[in-house]
Amino acid sequence: SKKRIAVLAGDGIGKEVMPEGVRVVDAAARKFGIDLQFDTFDWSSWDYCEKHGQYMPDNWKDLVGGHDAIFFGAVGWPEKIADHTSLWQSLLLFRRDFDQYINLRPARLMPGIIAPVVRRDGTPRQPGEIDMYIVRENTEGEYSAVGGRMFNGTEREIVMQETIMSRHGVDRVLKFAFELAQKRAKKHLTCATKSNGIAITMPYWDERFAEMARKYPGIKTDKFHIDILTAHFVQRPDFFDVVVATNLFGDILSDLGPACTGTIGIAPSANMNPDRTFPSLFEPVHGSAPDIYGKNIANPIGQIWAGAMMLDFLGHKDAHDAILSTIEKVLDPKSGAPKTPDIGGKASTTDLGKAIAAAL
Ligand code: NAI
Ligand code: MG
């Protein structure tokens, strides 16, 4: 049956990488006989906001709520609008209102990319040595709207913001992480915590983790406080398989993980509602990158890989695997394929996107 994809390119390099994401997803759909329809929208962007005073129309849920997935570029135009305003008027509304409670972010060292983190003996990490998934809680935790500000502008000024953890919310992300670890060769799940310093919510998170672990005796588990965990990511990224974290810690780890693999330009992010009561949203990890926008030099692989995760979620693992192995093939220096500047080449966004579509 036909699958309908809502396409929201958004701001900055979102507008440059999205055409390449669509190009490759479309090529995969043709190859594997998947019937896809792309519906493109101009909202969820500063251009729209400038005219209408908000990032999205009031009826955004009606416009895309019936789609099978949302393919998302990036939002944010800091020169014109505060980052927290653009994010809370678009991406964060999708994550919350569509209950996309899992944010899944792979970090994998690809061929042809030099990892900035080396082994203890100083030799370079090889593809396959870094291959992990970060599972980030995506709807509650530290990113809550509960809090306030008092005595504005006076010496008595007070601000506070609460962390929210519900048993339902914590258990469902932990369960997803254990299930994912179960499917992986290493069957190893790491819990990111900070229960030494954050003495109410984080011990609860640890407690629920231990409780869930009892149901998965086949999974090797461990737990690190977030501060030392970031150090381990840099010093021994090969140790990790699946890492589960709260909203804030997961946000940080899922930039750090891909950065350890050389560039955030290739990293994808799946905002998933595994229950499928609402559409899930697939996007690159990176933002709108105003510093390079307009030059057509952004790496489109983050968007393309996000497209592969979208096809996987829609039931086409074969198409996902084909896109991934094509990305690996094209990145391999032996392929002679064009590379964008962030991975050491001189090619354009379009050149790299076309090369991947052609190789597929
Ligand atoms: P950013 O990810 O846009 O850029 C960080 C750095 O990485 C920049 O130097 C940029 O040139 C580089 N970079 C990013 N993507 C790249 C790619 N595909 N190829 C090559 N280089 C790439 O993060 P930044 O600068 O903190 O934020 C810029 C705007 O994007 C802000 O408005 C921010 O709020 C927004 N943002 C939006 C996100 C989203 O829509 N999911 C995520 C992160 C930031
Ligand atoms: Mg982030």
Automatic annotation (TrEMBL):
Do you know which SMART domains this protein is assigned to?
Iso_dh
Task: Give every Isopropylmalate dehydrogenase-like domain span.
Answer: 4-356
User: Which class of enzymes does this protein belong to?
Assistant: oxidoreductase
Domain of life of the native organism: Bacteria
**What cofactor requirement does the entry state?**
Mn(2+); Mg(2+)
Q: Which UniProt keywords apply?
A: Manganese, Metal-binding, NAD, Oxidoreductase
Give EC number(s), comma-separated: 1.1.1.83
* GO MF term list: tartrate dehydrogenase activity
Catalytic reactions on record: (R)-malate + NAD(+) = pyruvate + CO2 + NADH
Q: Does the keyword Cell wall biogenesis/degradation apply?
A: no
Q: Extract the PANTHER family matched here.
A: D-MALATE DEHYDROGENASE [DECARBOXYLATING]
Q: Which family does it belong to?
A: Belongs to the isocitrate and isopropylmalate dehydrogenases family.
Record protein name field: D-malate dehydrogenase (decarboxylating)
Task: Tell me what organism the protein belongs to.
Answer: Ramlibacter alkalitolerans
